[in-house]
Automatic annotation (TrEMBL):
It comes from Adiantum capillus-veneris (Maidenhair fern). One of its GO terms (biological process) is protein insertion into mitochondrial inner membrane. It is a peripheral membrane protein. InterPro entries: Tim10-like, Tim10-like_dom_sf. This is Mitochondrial import inner membrane translocase subunit. It holds the Pfam family zf-Tim10_DDP.
Amino acid sequence: MAKNASDEMLGMAQQEMEYRVELYNKLTHSCFDKCIEKKFKDSDLNVAENSCVDRCVYKYWQVTAIIGQLLNSMDWGAMLDVSPIRRDPLVYCTNGVHSPGGVSFVSETA
């Protein structure tokens, strides 16, 4: 039993890491496209680019935090009309890994 719990925790940690890497990659791509000149004149960022990147990253994390809070505060069971009486092919579960707000859907047939 402890082995299954350990494997599950390892799988959740791996999924969390994948989510964070994806989030970092999106942030990097978005802020780079927005702030960095396409003609690389210098080896370092200029003051305007550096300031833009700082603001972009700050705003990105603010928005991500706000969206996460909103998703966590939502009543997903009511929104999805999931009840013990009604059986859907989708099983509602919360594990905090698969998506912002921790909602994932797993097929019962899988």
